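Appendix B: complex inputs.
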Amino acid sequence: GSALPPNEQLGASEKVPRIISAAAMSYGQRTLLPTTAPFATRLLSLMEEKRTNVALAADVLSCAEALALAEELGPEICMFKIHADALGGFDESFHLRLAEIAKRHRFLLFEDRKFADIGSVARRQYEGGIFRISHWADVVTVHAVAGPSALLSLQEACSSTDNGAFIVSEMSCQGSLAVGNYTQAAVEMAKVCRDFVAGFICTSRVTTDPSWVLVTPGVKLQEGGDGQGQQYLTPEEVIGRRGTDVIVVGRGIIDADDRLATAQAYRHAAWQAYEGRVAQI
Amino acid sequence: GSALPPNEQLGASEKVPRIISAAAMSYGQRTLLPTTAPFATRLLSLMEEKRTNVALAADVLSCAEALALAEELGPEICMFKIHADALGGFDESFHLRLAEIAKRHRFLLFEDRKFADIGSVARRQYEGGIFRISHWADVVTVHAVAGPSALLSLQEACSSTDNGAFIVSEMSCQGSLAVGNYTQAAVEMAKVCRDFVAGFICTSRVTTDPSWVLVTPGVKLQEGGDGQGQQYLTPEEVIGRRGTDVIVVGRGIIDADDRLATAQAYRHAAWQAYEGRVAQI
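Resulting structure:
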């Protein structure tokens, strides 16, 4: 595949200079690039040290359930992804307790807000209201639809230069308009805001630049759909063949009888796929 | 302009059949079309009876300020637009009090959530969490980026068949990707969900079908920008020349010394522009 450098394809005797593709570099190597954003460096370092490229989509209905999940599965994951506005009982004590668990089990807090409004509004949604997302989320998602000024407004409201955002450049659901020229424009947009944007939400390797972290939702050990437009891909397909970096797993783990064993199975599958692609060098 | 039917252009003696454009039909006439959605019918009827095509964007920082605005300016407007997640102090008593004011002053409640996630998530954000938007918002906004399945999931979660949604087909900020093919795809997407979709958020007449209500944000009496990418248009430009139906005014009213007099000035300007375009028949 495209992850193979030319010298592998030609045989070692050809002495072609090593061109290492983004997908074939290790997470650790990518933290050393000058263009890797501060949050991307934090995340890649943690993934390398903890040996996990699994993010959990904590798609449960209450804060109590989310906290129980974080406690049980925290040791297996690199990020814990929530939608604050879909959790019953959200209050300040929730994000304080979640931050304590995140610190103890070493994972990062990911609010999947998908900001998609003009700059002045997105900024108030990020730092204000009852969620005060900028105060506790290490990373958030932003849609490209509102253009670069919304991104710059969020960056201004960021409470720490170690925090960041992923731009949604592709979606995992049928009929999404985040395809083709839209995807390319989303990837270009990231360049106006390199310190804040850590990478992309995508279902394929949308850029060859290894500075960006590529995060893929809609992952299950078995392919299929959910009847509401969601389309699932396997960890091997996503990390091994498509060459993105982090799998986001929700219902595949949440709905399992043994959540811990299932999370470990995803972790093993996704990490093996990563080691397989890096070992191609 | 395009609002002029051919018989006006040719002179009455030509006896050409009257082709009435969408922009030239009255709000009341449009409620009689079989393809007008239930929420669009409610809104157009209210606009015709109350003689206002102004929606207020209540872009303030707290629920207390939002309630004071609703009380003061409610008599002037057709819709009161909020972002629940940008308001400090949101709780159930807020939306109950807001609904009481809305009923008394006769305006509709508009939560500008800009849903932009896969169906299963958007649905939980609409009906669940601490906001329970589907229980009190007459209308919400939805981005087209996630595709039609997200729209259908929201429709299923709708608490009343009288409620609806506007699809964001264009945005008022610089560099938005909601242009060209994206805009056209957003307009097409509405057709899969005609009972739920009441119309579009747009800055131009994106469709000639008079069933849809066209709502334009970013309106001020003076043109200009906000330094965060927002670009303002005047009521006369929006309603009179571009032919959309509702102006959304935020900072133009909120930041005024005399909010009531300013709201009345917007109401007068937008209604005059509407009467001018309908009188062209």
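The CA atoms of residues 28 and 45 of chain A lie 6 Å apart.
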